[in-house]
Specification:
The longest helix is centred in the first third of the chain and has 16 residues. The protein has 124 residues and is α/β, with parallel strands linked by helices. The chain is 45% helix and 15% strand. Helix 4 crosses helix 5. It is elongated and about 55 Å long. It has a three-stranded parallel β-sheet with strand order 2-1-5. The protein has a two-stranded antiparallel ribbon with strand order 3-4.
């Protein structure tokens, strides 16, 4: 199973507003609009605030030692379960990690990587 790379883009607020205006104008004129889905940030600092060293380490750990549950991931990384749970939920929202359906007596959820590469694209 080949994984897709995840692209994170940095766009200025002006660029985002320009894209919105172009889409709005096309829609009001009845023109077809191509749906754009992606992960966008306003600055490199915003990316750093989201992709912290701990979160990147979690991604690497999930890839190298696929855990059967969040609890197992907490044990492997020697981190607090609540922090692991919060970080994995955040990575799930970004589309980098999939959480399996709850299973077992404790409703364990298995984290799985959706991307094994992250590309950072900066619009100039």
């Amino acid at each position: 199973l080949a994984m897709k790379a995840k692209t994170i883009q940095i766009k200025s607020a002006d660029s985002v507003l320009k894209d919105f205006a172009n889409t709005y104008n096309a829609l009001t004129q009845g023109k077809p609009v191509k749906k754009k889905v992606g992960t966008y940030f306003a600055s490199i600092q915003a990316v750093r605030n989201v992709l912290t060293e701990n979160r990147i380490q979690l991604l690497k750990t999930i890839k190298q030692y696929p855990p059967g549950s969040l609890y197992a991931l907490a044990k492997i990384t020697h981190r607090n379960f609540k922090n692991i749970s919060d970080d994995v939920a955040f990575l799930h929202e970004l589309g980098l990690v999939q959480l399996g359906k709850p299973h077992g007596s404790r409703s364990q959820r298995k984290p799985t990587l959706l991307s094994d590469h992250i590309y950072l694209e900066i619009a100039i």
